[in-house]
Amino acid sequence: MNPYITQRWISYLRDIGLQEELLTRYVEYIEVCVKNGVPPIFEQVHLAKLTGRNTDDLMAMVFGTESFYREFRLRKRSGGFRKIRAPYPSLLEVQRWINEEILSKRKLPNCVTGFREGYSILDNARMHCGRDEIIKIDIKDFFPSINFKRVMSTFISLGYPVNVSFFLSRLCTLDNELPQGAATSPALSNIICSNLDKRFYKLCRSRRLRYTRYADDITISGKSIPDGLAKLFFEIIESEGFKANETKTRYYRSGEKKIVTGLDISTGKPRVTRSYRRDIQKDVYFVWSAGLSTHVARRKIFAPNYIRQLEGRVRFWESIEPESRQMKRTLQRVMELRLLYG
């Protein structure tokens, strides 16, 4: 706790003439917030000032949230579409403030590798390198499974009173769920999964297994994973208010090819998959040999910055395998294409 911050609040509250009886209650609240590393918020006018909005605009967001979102669909790699509900800039700015000033203050265990600064799919995959057996479990409808009540409980647990928690929760939810596209949904999902993570970690540690969760993607690895353990994993997930997508559960045994968060760890070191390397090299070859216009027309590609997209794909490969000779040759060719096509 930072006593300097508390003392500044006490001085301010006395300067504005707050009665001592109220001052005591306010100071207790402030101390809880300071202890949790979050800013004290007293009511909607104060929240509006903190987020840089006028009170009427903020209340419009709170009570008419659906008017501040647009909806579109993205195609899934596995087939079908994923519904994205993205906030308009005014609400997005408020959510970013909530994310940076409140949600980011909550500490997360190392087993959580998604939606947090300094962690990536590479960190997640590395945790399971050299392990003989792996189970991958997907949580079904991850964000929609988290409702308004659970979000409000999160803000209350951070020290906020019911009225403030209500406002914050309304700004972070849509139709009684976390929208996939809101700036606050990733951090809130990680906080809400904290008990699930503790239970998985404790269970796995007792059996000398490793556990990580990258968003809705759970990975457990070890020398040997008992056959009946998966059922216990599913029970934990369900008891925490989620549901496992059992059709997407994957078991990797010793000697099998192992893919974790999209990376191949079969050799004991994370690599991009063979199909990823092959597809990039094929696209680069066809652009080089047939020309950009012919390639995009043949593949029906509608991307004005296609060469830069190719570079981005190779740069991702570089981030995973910086010493790969194949990658370096492909990157050199892409940079030549950039000079050629601008």
TrEMBL record:
Signal peptide: none annotated. It is an enzyme of class 2 (transferase). GO terms for molecular function: RNA-directed DNA polymerase activity. Pfam families: RVT_1. Coiled coil: none annotated. InterPro entries: DNA/RNA_pol_sf, GrpII_Intron_Splice-Mob/Def, Reverse_transcriptase_msDNA, RT_dom. It comes from the Bacteria. Residues 1-265 form the Reverse transcriptase domain. It catalyses: DNA(n) + a 2'-deoxyribonucleoside 5'-triphosphate = DNA(n+1) + diphosphate. The keyword Transmembrane does not apply. Keywords: Antiviral defense, Magnesium, Metal-binding, Nucleotidyltransferase, RNA-directed DNA polymerase, Transferase. The keyword Glycoprotein does not apply. This is RNA-directed DNA polymerase. It comes from Albidovulum sediminicola.
